[in-house]
Amino acid sequence: MTSFWSIWVIVLTLSCLAIIFGLLIWNLKNYAGVEEGASCGHEYDGIEELNNPLPKWWTIMFFATFVWSVFYLAAYPGLGNWEGLFKWTSSNQGITSMAESKQAVIDAKANGERVQLDQEVRAAEERFGPIFKQYAAQDIEVLVKDEKALEIGQRLFSQNCAQCHGSDARGGVGFPNLSDNDWLYGGTPDKIKETILHGRKAAMPAWKDALGEQGVKEVTAFVLSLSGRKVNQKDADAGQARFAMCAACHGMDGKGSVAHNLPFGAPNLTDNIWLYGGSQRAVEETLNHGRQGVMPAWKDILGEEKVHLLAAYVYSLSHNEKH
Which family does the UniProt entry place this protein in (predicted)? Predict the structure, then answer.
């Protein structure tokens, strides 16, 4: 907030408080011209107005509220650029990266600032840290049989993963279904944990310039034929010859990098499971423009112990475990 608007807010707020205080004091005096308790000369439908003072309980409560408001404005931020006597804030502001967030926590503690979010995080770590540590010492294959562990993993999933993969983990266009057994980078416990810890970056290049419009059409026909789709056979045959440039990642049989123990995350093109859609138009779009999907890394955000529980829950989704 600029200095001008900060001053504007301070002056406006304090002026309103001064006016309210003045009105309260003014109403404590008798300006009606008649004695207290006497009639003011107004009557309507059998109801007569009397010159009664404000109830004492109401007056005391109003003064207490006013005093509290002054204390609150002085103690906490919110009055323009005023930081408050207690140096309290809800969270560290202006953070754009995990590194900045961690440094801000250190700086706030060194400067004696009371950051509410930091305090809550520390309290949560003290309370729940031993629980996560205990679960992290167990193998994922053991945790998938522990209902309590899976409940915690499900909460972690709902809070951090459901935004992309959906609350039911069935994904959507561009976001993998985690409830089936189709994995781009491997579905073993170790691979799932590795994916969550370090993230994944897709690298499907655009082939529009290399193949041309007709080439994209032919490769699309061949790719669709791999999963048993009906296509123009002439285009498919021509596309098969061009498919050699795709085989480096997908394999000559089109079964993807997992089938050939490669780290690329190239999908299986023979199973009719499509991350971005399996229509002719969707496949052509993929070939023309490529795909650059990103799975973020959660190691610095959640920590390895929470990721271990989260991996157990994700693993259970495709292995028919109760959760």
Answer: Belongs to the CcoP / FixP family.
- From 252, 249, 254, 225, select the one nearest 237 (Cα to Cα): 225
Indicate the number of domains in the chain: 2
Do 143 and 281 fall within a single domain?
Answer: no
Query: At residue 277, does pLDDT exceed 90?
Result: yes
Q: How far out from the chain centre does Cα 183 lie?
A: 24
Structural domain span for residue 175: 138-201+297-317
Confidence of residue 134 (pLDDT cuts 50, 70, 90): very high
106, with CB counted inside 10 A (0-12, 13-18, 19+), is exposed
Q: What is the mean pLDDT of the chain?
A: 92
- Do residues 310 and 169 touch, judged by C-beta distance below 8 A? no
204 labeled binding residue: yes
The answer to whether the CB of 200 falls within 8 A of the CB of 265 is: yes
Distances in Å between the Cα of 122 and the Cα atoms of 10, 94, 128, 129, 152 are: 34, 21, 10, 10, 19
Residue whose pair of structure tokens reads 């390895």 in the numeric block: 304
Question: Is 16 annotated to bind ligand?
Answer: no
DSSP conformational letter for 168: T
The reported pTM is: 0.75
Rounded Cα distance, 132 and 300, in Å: 16
246 is in an annotated binding site: yes
40 is in an annotated binding site: no
Structure tokens at 266: 């190239």
Q: Is 310 within the bounds of a domain?
A: yes
* 61 assigned binding-site residue: no
1 annotated ligand-binding residue: no
